[in-house]
Amino acid sequence: MTEDCILKIDGVTKRFSNDLDIAERTARKLGAKIEPVTVHAVDGITLDVRKGEVLGLVGESGCGKSTLGRMVAGLTPPTDGRILYKGQNVAELKGTAARDAALRIQMIFQDPMSSLNPRLQVRDIIGEAPRVHGIVGRREMAGYVEDILAQVGLDPSTGKRYPHQFSGGQRARVGIARALAVKPDFLVCDESVAALDVSIQAQVLNLFVKLRQDFDLTYMFVSHDLGVVEHISDRIAVMYLGRLVELGDAEDLIARPNHPYTQALVSQIPTFETGKKTYQAIKGEIPSPMNPPPGCHFHPRCPFAHDRCRSEVPVLKQVAAGRMSACHLNDSAA
Amino acid sequence: MTLSTSNTPVRIDSPGRRIVKQFIEDPVAVVGLVLFVLVALIAVAAPWIAPQNPYDLAQLDIMDSSLAPGESNFMTGQIYWLGTDQQGRDMLSAIMYGLRISLLVASISLGLAITIGTIVGVAAAYFGGRLDSFVMRVVDLQLSFPAILIALILLALLGRGVDKVILALVIVQWAYYARTVRSSAIVERRKDYIDAARCLALSDRRIMFRHLLPNCLPPLIVVATVQIAQAIALEATLSFLGVGVPITEPSLGLLIANGYDYLLSGVYWISLFPGIALVVTIVAINLVGDRLRDVLNPRLQK
Amino acid sequence: MNPLLQVTDLQTHFFTRDGVAKAVDGVSFTLEKGQVLGLVGESGSGKSVTGFSILGLVDPPGRITGGQILFDGTDLVAGGEPALRHLRGKRIAMIFQDPMMTLNPVLRIDTQMVETVRAHEDVSHAEALRRAREALVQVGISPPDERLKSYPHQFSGGMRQRVAIAIALLHKPDLIIADEPTTALDVTIQAQILSELQTLCATSGTALIWITHDLAVVSGLADRLAVMYAGRIIEEGPTAEVIARPRHPYTRGLIDSVPRGKRHGAMLTQIKGMTPSLLKLPKGCKFMPRCPRADRVCEAEPSLVPLTSERSVRCFHPHDDAEEVLQP
Q: Which residue of C has its CA nearest to A170?
């Protein structure tokens, strides 16, 4: 582990399975073909996040990027593997040590409305956790909340309002303020700008860039929008059906994608056209994570797939300096 | 299709003020509310405003037994506006005191049942898993039996008494609240603000009662208004059947039962007036409840 | 020749508890046969309400309070529901952001499609089924016979949107109004649908109004763009012109706020402030409070002024034609 690694995701897997209920178990004993369904939402991911960097995590629906984000934020435990924060396994900590570690990693959610409790005033939304955890005394509370509101670009006098009295972009700022109030050093942003209008999205992205400098934050930026991720990230990790398929320096990865899936994603980044564009779509649907294809998950849609891809799972390995990719094509080229 | 003004903070009204505003738009509901407040005031103030204390046997005169409405005590000249019962008790006073017992039993049982039901329901929704399955099976089982049947069996085992009626009503009713709270809590539980609270390392208890519960209240309030009417009716039924409150402290149900034997001999007032009081109370509560359901239902809001 | 669709001074207002929201306030545009128009704006700009107004699908408390919608010579506003009923679904079709607005979850795809065909045309069941199958093939759904017998919930989101598009295509409409149909879809699926719609419009001569918040998505598809803000069109013109040389400060701001192709990690150019409430619009130019070029002149209401025969802009201080923001 390198010096500057703040978070280590070590072989993390998340399986969701629906256990059979009594009726289904009975039916099964009587010979019906009912199997418990297991979904590998995240399948053996190993990844380091360096202190102070922005790691972009991209992929399409069902790729497990949000589940990975939620595991990092401590909202759901991994089925296998460990998540080490500053070398400590967060899941094994107890008592105040567990609480402190949990507060260090905060999450910024997608929907600015549903992520704020509609019955609480903004000053309570922001101030509750710092007060409960004794980060700030009761007397300094009002000033503390006002400071944070100002930090995220809100009028400090808005503390007495309820979430429904804010616009979408302002609610997003309140969500960010709530996370900052417990003095985190790691933020997981799960599609945090996806629900915002374009002009507001730019404001919030700028805020993320500013806060990173002000508070020395590390981000894990989860998004389906490669354009946004490219802009904000230092490194990008691409996921497909629960597996990491490519990882590398942001600019380099966009400029020279190695994995065929990354190539497809990059070619789909909508760009401004001044003439009619012919859309070149990659074929096929995203397979169901309940029944992923064998071998390389991407092979049914891959224009370069060969026999080996259908049977053998490609391993993520270094293909250039600072670049990892999981594709058999790299072997045959060598 | 909705109009996209969600981005813009226009409405300054707090949710509470909006509810009040919309509630008073319906005159029928306002009448219901006024009636209910009146009934409740009478019940609370009964010892001070009733012409006599119907439980104080010394104040009763057997000579006044079964006087028709409007007749008066020939010694004191006191007018019995609603007549007297077979023991010479003033029916008006008896109804006031009866209301007091009925509402007392209903509201205490309501309070206890809501408390138990809410805690169980929120905990089931928040923790999920086995606790949830277990609690909900118990609720299903209990709700599959008619409430009156369970209450009758309980009182047959426990005997009579105000406390025992309250206990029976709580046991019969907590399940409704548990189910209502759980179903709305399970929707709220999936929202991001609960995950955000967990991220902030807030305690489970705090998340359940400060974050989850307040957002589950509207349906609970509606169910509570329906259930308090149910509780009053149920208590009246039990007392009418003679397994409820003791004879010394007659509730409305028992008053109706007392007059039942004389109903066909023309002495109608002993049963009729407590009956009217009971109906007015229940109808008033239901009117308020219906309107509250409309006002609190987010789907009916424009 | 008359244009296929001519909207003139359309007014759609919502009469809410808190006042009148002028969701669409004086929108005019024309659309030729086979043309693709991109209607772009942020939430609350009135772009969707404009689309709904053309089909007469505005629900109370909203209603069309003025203007004219001429579709192939028929005034849809004056004609009202009777005029619309036999156009809707037949000559004008709509595709929604959520395909489940079109699809009935409890009916099989074939039932729904056959019903749609026979609602407007007196054809046999077999013929209707043949048409349904053909439409599914057109949108790239295979195998069509098996898919016809499925229920909507058996499809993925992208597939459902395709079925909704297939249903829209059943009557070979002259005009399709698409309201953010790819916003909820993954990028690889979005590209598939865009490419298919593009081919379909080109081969069948169907005109398309593509309503979206994403300028980048529509820029490669539309012939013309109309940018909306606070219920009005603020800039209109051929796509290439608008994208390469936006004249209105708002259009320019929108293009600048998109992070694509900008310097990595740098601050984005942002439009200050937020979208105004339709109930409390500023006087004069509606964009004035957020506009970097605003001055006293903007306290008057600007009108949509034609710059060339093709382009018009609603601004007192439009950007210079020579300033290019994007190199093609």
A: C274
